Amino acid sequence: MPQRQVLDALFYMAKESCTWWALPAEFGPWHMVYMRLNRWAKSGVLARVLNELQRDQLVALELDAFSLDSTIVKLHADGAGALRKGGARRSCVREAD
Question: For FRET with 56, which of 1, 73, 85, 93 sits at 20 to 30 Å CA-CA?
Answer without folding.
Answer: 1
